[in-house]
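Task: sequence in, structure out. Protein: Flippase-like domain-containing protein.
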Amino acid sequence: MLGGVLGDGHKYFTVLGQVSLPYLLLAIFVYYLSVLIYALRWKLVLRGMGKDVPFLELVKSILASIFMNNVTPMSRSGGEVLRIAWISRRGKVPAGLSAMSIVYERILEAVPVFILFLVGMFCFSSMPGFLFVLGLLGIAFVWIRWEDFVRVSLRVFKTPVSEEELGQILSLKRCHGVTLAGILLSSVIWILDVVRLKLITLALGLHLGVLVLVIISIASLLLGLVALTPGGVGIIEGGLVGTLVHFGLPPAMAVSVTLLERLVSYVLSTVVGFVVLVTSGGMEIWRALKSP
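Result:
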């Protein structure tokens, strides 16, 4: 089906030629606003571990990590490693604390993602109740067995830490203010993701419902997690086109929405991330990581 869709390239250029520039610029603004909120969330987590890293360094490391994610196979395979090394060198944060701050971010992020996932499952699954209970049990298990989870994660990441650093990591669970703020900021990030999709569709003159946009956001997330190609190239695009066609969009419009979304979330982010990487000393950090 996709091959036939791609055969009508002139239709896509016709649709893309009618893009509303103000909506597209707003979508780009929303994307980078999300990056700032990512950095703020990370700063709060690090502060909860007793480390105060300059906000600008966190922003630069995230932007550079997006570039690395987009050019290395497997989701976040290169970007997360770069973030750990960047903050360890620039923020004087021990590698173990830096790694676990990112792991803790993912736990906080799991709450709104889980809610979005449930929305999608209620639309497509014949047993949403079972998936809800399974997901809830998974989150509860990690929270209850936090110390064991941390120790296993450190072994997986092959990151040695001192007893003092381990205590700082484990103390995060008791920082209720950091946890609640992190969940709130994570929720804002995913709301902005839906808002960005809304702006992109409006730029093409479409008026999709919030539920459809939420499901598209979930599809993009899941496709990115399972994609083996750099930045999910090919896999994410095909999945998003299929999702949009499933909801009744003409193939030409579905491809146009996907191309515009990937322009913002992949092409521009890759360019900006590369510029940050080469102008902020990130290449030296990456070369140090690759050297024996």
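The two ends are 46 Å apart (CA to CA).
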